[in-house]
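subagent[fold] <- orchestrator: predict structure for attached chain, return C-alpha cells only, no commentary.
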Amino acid sequence: MSTTAEATLTDFLRDPKAVVDRLEHVDVVLHRRNAEDLHLSLESRSEAVADGVRFVARMLGAALSDAAVRGRLEASAEAIPWLSFLPTQRRQEFLAEFFRTAEAAAELGVMMPLAQLLREWQATAVIYADPELAAELRRPLAGDGERVAAPPAG
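subagent[fold] -> orchestrator:
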C-alpha cells in the first residue's frame, strides 16, 4: 500500500473535501504547474514521524559514544556508494558531521540542514571522483585579490 496519494492543485481547488477525505488514510502530494509540489499530511502523522526521527537521532548520538558501535556505523556507511570516493579522513569527517547534524535537525524538527549537508558532501565526492574537475578547481584564478590558503589535503 502506498503511503501517499497524488492530486493536482486544481483537483484540490475544485473538490477540497475529496482530497481532505484521502488524508484520513494517506498523505497527499499536490502537484502544481511550474512550482514545487505540496505535501499534505495530518498533523498527528507528521508529529509521529518527527518524534521517530528525534528518537533515532538521540539513540545514534548515544550509541556513538561507544567506540565499537561507532566503528560498526562507519563500516555500514558503505551502504552509501558515493562515500567510497571520499578519502578515509574525509569519510570520517562526513560521518561525524552527519550524526551531529542529524541529531540537531531532528531535535528542531527541521530536516533541511541534513539534506543540505548530504548534497554538499555528495558534491565533494564528485570532485574526488573526477580528477579533471579536481584539477580545474585547484588551478589559480586570474584576477585581483588576496591569495586564499588551500584546504587541508585529504
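orchestrator: received. Logging for downstream: The chain has two domains: 4-41, 44-130. The helical segments are 9-14, 16-22, 43-63, 67-76, 88-108, 112-129, 131-138.
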